[in-house]
Design goal:
Blueprint lengths: L24 H5 L14 H4 L11 E8 L5 E11 L3 E18 L5 E19 L4 E14 L2 E16 L4 E15 L11 E9 L5 E7 L10 E6 L5 E4 L6 H6 L2 E10 L2 E8 H7 L10 E9 L2 E11 L2 E11 L5
C-alpha cells in the first residue's frame, strides 16, 4: 500500500508453527492464548492440559477456522474420565494449506501441489488436590508439504492452581517440547517451544473475569528487523533488535482478556495482543490490529461460540466452535 509502512514479523525460526495457531473461538476472542480459565470448557485443555477435568467426561468439541488466503484449519476433541485414574482426551489438530500450482525453475507448470499438517493430541490430567491439578499432552505430528514429509513428537506440560473462594486461578505451561523424528530434507529444525504463565480473576460482585497471559518467555527479545540477507530459499531473513524500550518488550509478551458473564448460557469476550499489533499493524494507521472479540451462547444441549481477531487492515480471522456433552443425551 503506497504511503503506508507495515511492521516486520518474525518467522521461520522453527518447524511445525501451526501448533501455535488458536482454534478455539473463545480463546481467539481473548487475545489468542489463555491457560488459566477453568470452567468446564474442553477447549481450554488444548491450551493447558491441566485444565482437563472430571466434569468434562464425555465432552466433545469441534472447531473450524477459515483462515487467510484459502488456508483452513480446525480441531476435534473428546474427553473421558476414569475414576481413581484421571481424565483423558484425544484430539486432532489439522491445517490444510490448499492446492498450489507447481512449477519448475523456468516457470513451466508441473501439476498441482498440496500441503497439510496434523497433530494427534493425547492428554492426561489429574487433580492432585482440591486446588492443584497437572496435565500432560503428547503430540505426534505429521507434516506433508508437496513431496516432502516430516514426522515429529512434541509435548505440553501444565500446572493449574485455583482458589475458588477468591475466584482466582493461575497456571504455568511449557509447550511444544520435543523434536523432529524425520526432517523434510537434511536439516533438522527446532520446535516452537514456549513457556507461558497466566492469571485469571473473576470479580466477586460483577459478571466480569479478567485474564493476563505471559507468553514466549523463553526468549525476551521479540522485536525483529528485516535485513538484506537471504536464506537458501531466496526469502529475506531478519535479525533480532533491542531498539524497543523495556515497556514495549514486556508488552509484547502479554495477552489481555476480559469476559462478560451475565449467565452460564451466554458470554462476551474481548482481548488484546500487543505483539500482534506491533508486528502486523500499519505504522500510519494501526486501526484495531491486535484487538479481538467474540461471544458464546447455549442452545438446547450445544454451546456455540464465535471469535474474531483483527490481524491487520487487510483481514481478520473468524473462529467457530461447537461443543456438547454426550452424557446429556442419555
Amino acid at each position: 500500500m503506497v504511503g503506508q509502512k507495515m511492521m516486520a514479523q518474525r518467522g521461520g525460526e522453527s518447524t511445525y508453527d501451526f501448533l501455535n495457531l488458536t482454534n478455539s473461538a473463545r480463546v481467539a476472542a481473548l487475545g489468542g492464548t489463555n491457560i488459566s480459565i477453568m470452567d468446564n470448557d474442553i477447549n481450554m485443555a488444548y491450551h493447558n492440559p491441566a485444565l482437563l477435568q472430571q466434569e468434562m467426561n464425555n465432552a466433545m468439541v469441534l472447531n473450524f477456522v477459515p483462515y487467510m488466503t484459502g488456508v483452513k484449519y480446525g480441531y476435534v476433541g473428546y474427553a473421558k474420565h476414569y475414576e481413581n485414574v484421571g481424565t483423558f482426551s484425544f484430539g486432532i489438530h489439522n491445517i490444510n494449506y490448499g492446492d498450489f500450482q507447481r512449477t519448475n525453475d523456468i516457470g513451466e507448470e508441473m501439476g498441482i501441489a498440496t500441503a497439510a499438517e496434523y497433530s494427534f493430541n493425547l492428554t492426561y490430567a489429574r487433580q492432585l488436590s482440591p486446588t492443584l491439578s497437572m496435565g500432560l499432552t503428547a503430540k505426534p505430528i505429521y507434516s506433508k508439504l508437496d513431496a516432502y514429509t516430516s514426522f515429529g513428537l512434541a509435548a505440553d506440560f501444565g500446572v493449574h492452581y485455583r482458589k475458588p473462594e477468591n475466584n482466582f486461578s493461575m497456571a504455568i505451561v511449557l509447550k511444544n517440547v520435543g523434536s523432529q523424528i524425520t526432517s523434510y530434507h537434511e536439516t533438522q529444525e527446532t520446535m516452537p517451544s514456549d513457556l507461558q504463565i497466566g492469571l485469571s480473576k473473576k470479580l466477586a460482585h460483577a459478571p466480569f473475569r479478567f485474564s493476563i497471559t505471559a507468553q514466549h518467555l523463553l526468549n525476551w527479545d521479540l522485536t525483529y528487523t528485516p535485513t538484506d540477507t537471504e536464506n537458501e530459499n531466496g526469502s529475506s531473513l531478519g535479525t533480532q533488535t533491542s531498539d524497543a524500550n523495556f515497556g514495549d518488550q514486556l508488552m509484547r509478551h502479554m495477552v489481555f482478556g476480559v469476559e462478560f458473564l451475565p449467565s452460564k448460557n451466554f458470554h462476551v469476550d474481548f482481548g488484546y495482543n500487543h505483539r500482534r499489533r506491533k508486528e502486523l499493524g500499519y505504522e500510519e494507521r494501526m486501526s484495531t490490529a491486535g484487538f479481538s472479540w467474540g461471544f458464546g451462547f447455549r442452545v438446547y444441549k450445544f454451546l456455540f461460540s464465535y471469535g474474531s481477531a483483527r490481524y491487520h487492515l487487510g483481514g481478520s480471522s473468524n473462529h467457530f466452535s461447537i461443543s456438547t456433552n454426550l452424557s446429556n443425551f442419555k
